[in-house]
Each structure stands twice: as structure tokens, then as C-alpha cells.
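Question: I have long wanted to understand how a fold can be written as C-alpha cells. Here is the record:
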Amino acid sequence: MEVSLDLCRHGAAPSMVVRNTVHVLPREMLGLSTFGIAMALLKLLPVRVVDRILLAAARLALGDTGKLGLRRPKTGPIELKNLTGRTPVLDVGTLAHIKTGKIKVVGAVKEVTQRGVRFADGKEEQFDAIIQATGYRSNVPSWLKDPFPNGWKGKNGLYAVGFSQRGLLGASADALNIARDIHRQWTDTATDPSCSDVTVLSSDSF
């Protein structure tokens, strides 16, 4: 979600793919860290009771996220994390942009077309860029037709971030180099270097 938020703040018009259910919680409650409050409550109350408190607070602070295309799992956020390792998403401003329509929530992608994507429901949309599988774990080796020895270097506009096996430092360096390369190509080819009309599809790993 943060990827879409950053894109929106810099003038793009992102659409965010959400295939699965996801718990979205406010980053803070009553001025305190949501996770900090959860950890304190877990010392006094059972997990499911804490989950009910968190979900009630989230409903008050954020509203019904299901109406925005972000359906919640049936299992509570803390219990789900304990069972599967899936961490709740903390909202840092994305929901406000979803509510105003600046960020669109879309369903699963069936295939990538020449100018955009075709969704599972049959609809097609055009996009200027696709950011795929933003998350903590990569499944790239399982679907690539060819081996992945050195990463993509911008061939056909395709880049990869975080495959240098240097952790967050390597991912940061990759992102900066890619941003510079995209900016160079954009300013070389675009008559107007403004990104205000760029549409981006962000596929978050929910």
C-alpha cells in the first residue's frame, strides 16, 4: 500500500491489485503505536479479545475497509500473524486516497497485454508502468521461463529491485539506480517531463 501512496504523492495515478483478504489497522491509536498497544494488551488479555479491540478501533478510525475493496480475513490480525506470519498493514494515508479515488483498488490480473493488463473479470486497462509483487518474499524463480542469474537491467523497461542479496541496503541502492535510469529515459523521450498523467499498476502481495 505504501508503494501506491508514494506514487500518488508524486503525481501518478496508481491502481492497486488486491487479490486476498488483508487486515488494515491505523498506525496509531490515541497517539500511541497500534502494535505497542497490542503487545501491552496481550500481557493482560487473550489473543482473540485483543483482536476484537483492535478491529473495533480500526472500524472507528478507518471505517469499513471492505467497501473499499480491502476485505478482512475471518481470523483476527494478531491470531492470523501467529498462525501464518501475515502481518497486518498499517495505514499511513493510503486509505484516504482510496476514498477520494486517487488510488484505485482492482482485482486479480489474468494476463499482461501489450499496453496494460487484462483482469480476471475480463476487463482491460492501460498502464504506463507495472510494479509487480511488492512484498517480503519472492516467487520470481517459480514462474520465469529463463534463469535469473543477474537480474533485469532495464531491458524492455523491466527492472528488478532487491535481488542483489544485500538486504535492504541493496534494495535501496537498486531503487535509486533504477529511478535515475527511468528519469533519464523519461526526460529524453517525453515532451513534458511531468508525471501527472502516468498510470501505474501496483501488485501488492496481499
